[in-house]
Amino acid sequence: MSGIGPHNDDRMLQLLADRATEGVEGADAAALDEWLAMNPDIDGDAFERAAAVVVLTGTSVGKEALPTSLRGRLFAEAEVFFAWSKGP
Amino acid sequence: MLMVVPGIGTPSGALADGALSLECVTLAGPLAQDGQRCLLHRVGEGDTQAVTECIDRFGGLVWSLARKLIGNPSEAEDAVQEVFIALWKNASRYTPSVASETTFVTMIARRGLIDRWRKTRRRPNGNAVDVDDVPIHAAADDHCRVELAEEAARATEAIKQLRPEQQEVLNLAVCQGWSHQLIADRLCLPLGTVKTHVRRGLMRVRELLGADSGAEAEEAAS
Predict the structure, then answer these.
(1) CA of A1 vs chain B CAs: smallest distance (Å)
(2) ipTM of the complex
(3) What residues does B26 pair with on adjacent strands?
């Protein structure tokens, strides 16, 4: 059952934390979406953003430059994507 | 019943016993006041130069994340492509007052990589060492490096304030990409405890970073 209350809020905060670290799907994802829709003052990205900042502490992300071939693929994809987005 | 959502229930900060505050995830703060158009908004409009700059500025970061969390180079390349398409689709949603562009890109990238884990049912298993653990700053361009350094410093301070066990669990879950179950198994902790550490750790980081943002906003306004 959805709604606002300490127990439901705790569960939803846990789902937000799960989403930021493991992802959520199925009934959990639907419940979370419903709760966020009912509570527009809640920032649904907050935990994902916090996780992003934790990653940026630089303690565990590797030092690798973007491969040249992959860079080329991205530009080719961008050309298609943005041309398609703009329409005829 | 005591409500815990600021703006809806009883006075902000009043909590029922054992309840977790939602304040760390409420939208807050004024919108950005500078008139400068950020890179991601220009990307959202399909500005060719901005798209090029976006790939060059964030390509190394996204690639590093993909190599770390996906491992297999070929799959990582596909993942990077998917992440950039997601980034282009979401670029116009970026809000400068809420996060830096680097944080936003990292968030979109992690979201895409986690989705990929779920689709393929494959994720880091705690055995492989995919890439060297060295600061990502070295892989970034100058602009990105400065932004990263500032955010990393703030995040490091925030993380230092967490309890050691929270730090360890958060590192394994967020940076190493381990599942909650794997962390529970390896650290011999109940799954519920791992989940609580992850949740409270993220909340604490969010609160501490939010407090910093508030202080900066006040300073800028004075």
Answers:
(1) 17
(2) 0.85
(3) A42
